[in-house]
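Many introductory courses stop at the sequence. We go one step further.
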Amino acid sequence: MLGKGIAMQSFRMFSLLALAAVVLSACGTGSASPTASMGSGRSLSAGASVMGGSSIPAGLVIKIGSDGFYESKLMAEIYAQTLEAHGYTVDRAGFGMGTRAVTAAALESGQIDLKPEYVGSVLAYYKDTVSGNPDANIANLSAVLMGKGGGITVLDYSPAADQNAFVVSAATEAKYHLSKMSDLTAVASQLKFGVATDCATNPVCAAVLKSAYNLDLSGALPLSACGQPMVDALAVSTIQVGELCSTQPDIARNGWVVLTDDKKTQPADNLAPLVRNDLLAKLGRVSFEAILNEVSAKMTTARLTSLNVEFVFDKKDISTIAHEWLSANPIS
């Protein structure tokens, strides 16, 4: 976030062989085996037919990347396991590469072919107009990405959205009578802020919060917005206002309060895969896009939050979480 809805498609089941293939492919972080199983029970290898007659070119490896925080890596893993179960070979070397500046450059250069993104925030990264309307954000982002790296396509956006959220403890809320972001203006000098590491340069952070709420964040503590350091700092009152992801399970677990963004400074941040056009040109484009679009359609904000709970509090491995979600939500 600073890095960060819509009809569901019908659920159809994988066979037991498909689920087994997903489990096997989830282990490890490098390129997966080029063989996986489809819902019909047939085994596919590179060059074989997939989804209505299109084929996977022999030797093709899809390089998937993600930002550094766990939710981005989780969505990348879900897309990766789904593609493997449909016969594609995946390289995970780009998982957790870093901030958007790093992953956007990697996608544009071809270092990676595909990554999950938060459409409002990435649009703001490219310094284009953002809004609370995901359809408008998708249209603007698609236009921007046509000229990047030989062309990048934005696939269907998901009902799942993860907004930038500014959070306080219940004690801080009560002490300073806070419910919305504009309430911070009068008491900002008495509070220590924690913000994303790229806040100073991110167009939906320092600059817009200064303009909308007159908040000077030059002295704020830079921390991972969706990571444990921000949570820990807020928990022990090193900071009183912390920037978290709205799907972060620590908010509910700790009884923290999300301040309403009453000036609507933060964009609609629905998830969507970004894919290089040169990869799509090598594939049966319609079939490939349909697989990823079905994954996105089945993910909701509530489901994404519950998966984050499994990672943060249940201490499950990301590959296990992804596999279990795909078992419960099979992709045709």
